[in-house]
User: Fold this.
Amino acid sequence: MTGRGKYVVIGEGVRIGSNVAIGHHVVIHDGSVIGDHVRIHDHAVIGKLPMKAKRSATTAIDPSLPPTIIGDGCTIGTGSIIYRGAELARDVFVADLATVREKVAIGEETIVGRGVAIENACTVGVRCKLETGSYLCAYSALEDDVFIAPYVVTTNDNAMARGKHRFRSFKGVTVKRGGRAGAGAVILPGVVIHEEGAAAAGSVVTRDVEAKRIVAGVPARYLREVPREQWLEAPKREGEDA
Assistant:
């Protein structure tokens, strides 16, 4: 460990790799695993146990949650909270004031922006970008190379907290490889954005988005095809190098 700020609290059984810098007032809870070349900025909390409100519908206190794992090369921003049972792969960047809940797995080189909230039981693939203030609801899945613009909101409860039947039907959103959501889009429970599909800024997405199609509006409807030059594997034009 190469640096530790003032008033740092490190719990029992914590493992810390080489060349790790820890800022002031950081708390690392019992059993957490910190890889090599990690930067943890001031007031961050690693390995926090979840709390449960009496009326919480999706949070369960699980004493068997595995320790938090922070992979090599990760950056954890000021005031961010990474819960116990979360696992961040290599070179994940978590900006200031973000929250990553329990049972969340985040793939390599993904960026979690300032103030982003990732709720429990979500998976996020490699090279994703979740921009400032976006919200990923519980039980959601983002595949690789997904882009979520600022203040996108995802939802998982069609009953809006009314009726006991809703406990059987919580369903987050799924964004397949290369899917995108523009600033301020709202994505309703169970919606799937298929490969390279896109929801325009400010849209309310009430039904699945087909692959390589853009939807827009309230409710969102088909607008046009995703331009070929925006595909992850954009086809080469005649005369371009392979």
About this structure: DSSP finds no helices and 31 strands in the chain. The first strand starts at residue 3 and ends at 4.
